[in-house]
Design a protein that fits this description.
The chain is of the alpha/beta class. It has 2 domains: 30 residues; 134 residues, 3-Layer(aba) Sandwich (Glutaredoxin), CATH 3.40.30.10. The chain is built from 5 helices and 7 strands; from the N terminus they run H-E-E-E-H-E-H-E-H-E-E-H. The strands form 2 sheets. The chain has a 5-stranded mixed sheet with strand order 5-4-3-6-7, covered by helices on one side. Strands 1-2 form a two-stranded antiparallel sheet. The longest helix is centred in the first third of the chain and has 27 residues.
Length: 194
């Protein structure tokens, strides 16, 4: 009987270790080499539609500058945390005209989004995605999720879990330097913009 008592904790421990590893694989999608996307290096899917202020938006009109495409929801705590960083980034680059931000609404009602922007700031296009088609075309799995697009419309990098203004600036600098050197960010590059 005492032998069973000694084996029990070992079995329970082993089960917990296997369970923890399984949960870790599910949480990361089994990919620990950075954030990957089938879109990296390819033309970005188009984004066209109505914005929360009733205007229309077409991503194609922003060719010639870098674009941060940000998928967010008003109820998302990391989205709220990253929002001031997007505001800072967008304000800084509005002055130079070399980069812009567009947000795509992920599972929030337009009135909630208008209230969100009224409270947290931000003066860039916010595109509605009522049927989720844009999120599906980009392969969005959760929010916040952002994509950095090159001036030619190519997807350079995917960023999950929030961004900071300084990290986005660093990514832009890396891309600009790599273009001079003839190299390009690809899907072997890790996205760390937090």
């Amino acid at each position: 009987m005492s032998e069973r008592r000694r084996i029990g904790p070992w079995i329970a421990g082993a089960v917990l270790v296997v369970l923890a590893a399984f949960i870790g694989v599910l949480a990361t999608g089994g990919d620990d080499d950075g954030v990957r996307s089938r879109l990296i290096g390819r033309p970005a899917p188009g984004i066209a539609g109505d914005t929360i202020d009733g205007a229309s938006y077409d991503l194609a009109q922003y060719r010639g500058e870098f674009v941060v495409v940000n998928f967010f929801a008003t109820w998302c705590v990391p989205c709220i945390r990253e929002h001031p960083e997007l505001v800072e980034f967008e304000e800084r680059h509005r002055e130079t005209g070399d980069a812009s931000v567009v947000s795509v609404v992920f599972d929030s009602r337009p009135q909630q989004v208008r209230e969100f922007f009224a409270e947290y700031g931000g003066d860039w296009p916010v595109v509605l995605d009522p049927d989720g088609r844009t999120a599906l075309e980009y392969g969005v799995t959760g929010v916040p999720e952002s994509y950095l697009l090159a001036p030619d419309g190519t997807v350079l990098i995917k960023i999950e879990g929030g961004v900071t203004a300084s990290a986005l600036d660093d990514l832009l600098e890396q891309v600009q330097v790599s273009d001079v050197d003839g190299e390009h960010l690809g899907d072997d590059d890790e996205a760390d913009a937090s």
